[in-house]
Amino acid sequence: QVRLVESGGGLVQPGGSLRLSCVASGFTFSNYAMKWYRQAPGKERELLAIISNTGAWTNYADSVKGRFTISRNNTKNTVYLQMNSLNYEDTAVYYCSGLENWGQGTHVTVSS
After folding, report:
1. For the segment 53-62, what is each residue's pLDDT rounded down to a tens digit?
2. Phi, psi of 29 (to 5 degrees)
3. H/E element holding 25?
């Protein structure tokens, strides 16, 4: 079955960076677009970024454009989210998604 496992979250100071990873299995990863979402406490889940199956096309939410970069390595069945210039509002659980499936999420906390 489809399995998505995120990692890379943690505690970071404002202005810092993190790189999230999501390893996929159970489907032909290179055939499908992938997405990153997040859900902050008390808020709805927010779509952050999408990457096409080849990685040639990406799109971002306005809230993260210019700060976050989505990428993928189809030989490793992995999608990444590089997050720079993090601020308090980026504190959330981050999820990857593919084929309408979700991972368990990885927590990101931005705090001084």
Report:
1. 999 999 999 9
2. -55, -45
3. strand 18-25
Structure tokens at 98: 């593919």
Spatial separation of the C-alpha atoms in residues 74 and 53, rounded to whole Å: 8
According to the model, what pLDDT value does residue 20 have? 98
* CA separation, residue 33 to residues 54, 90, 97, 108 (Å): 8, 23, 9, 23
pLDDT (0 to 100) of residue 83: 98
- The Cβ of residue 100 has, within 10 Å, a number of other Cβ atoms equal to 6
Is the distance from CB of 15 to CB of 69 less than 8 angstroms? no
Beta strand pairing call for 46-51 and 58-60: antiparallel
